């Protein structure tokens, strides 16, 4: 299982509660698409998650942005996930970013709006913000290895565990 978060915007810690906290603790890997804001938030995630793949966002303090890349590619059990906080140019730029990294999924943040877009070639995923939804639904994402071994099942969830969207990612 992979847990995906973005846009924590905290000065005190990871701000994980309820189901979001449990999922992050149990996950095989945790991905964060940036905007921790502070070193305290980044360090809290690092201490809480066993395997952690963060990138920095535009609102991160200088010490955070100096520790983290702006983009990375995560490989997990045959799944390639390209991670960035944002790309100027919207969905087209995100899709090009993903294609350049031969990704199955592109994870981004910035908008605080959870959403899934299937481009036909890859999935564009924004988990939203589990803390500051800014008028949107609070969110994070969970990816489960499919039973057939050839697909992942994804769920966008609220921090309390309420699932509000599902999707599937097929591995080649």
Query: Roughly what percent helix?
Result: 10-25%
Low-pLDDT stretches are none
The CATH first-level class comes to: Alpha Beta
Question: How far from one another are the termini?
Answer: 19 Å
Strand arrangement within the widest β-sheet reads 3-2-1-9-10-11
CATH architecture: 4-Layer Sandwich
Sum up the structure in keywords.
11 strands, six-stranded mixed sheet, alpha/beta, five-stranded mixed sheet, 21% helix, Purple Acid Phosphatase, chain A, domain 2, 172 residues
What this model shows, in words?
The protein has four helices and eleven strands; from the N terminus they run E-H-E-H-E-H-E-E-H-E-E-E-E-E-E. It has helices at residues 18-26, 39-48, 62-67, 90-100; strands at residues 2-5, 29-32, 52-54, 71-76, 79-84, 105-107, 115-118, 123-126, 140-145, 151-157, 163-170. The protein is of the alpha/beta class. The radius of gyration is 14 Å and the shape is globular. It has one domain (2-170): Purple Acid Phosphatase, chain A, domain 2, CATH 3.60.21. The longest helix has 11 residues, at 90-100.
Provide a brief overview of the structure.
With 172 residues, the protein is an alpha/beta fold. It has helices spanning 18-26, 39-48, 62-67, 90-100, and strands spanning 2-5, 29-32, 52-54, 71-76, 79-84, 105-107, 115-118, 123-126, 140-145, 151-157, 163-170. Strands 3-2-1-9-10-11 form a six-stranded mixed β-sheet, covered by helices on one side. A five-stranded mixed β-sheet has the order 4-5-6-8-7, covered by helices on one side.
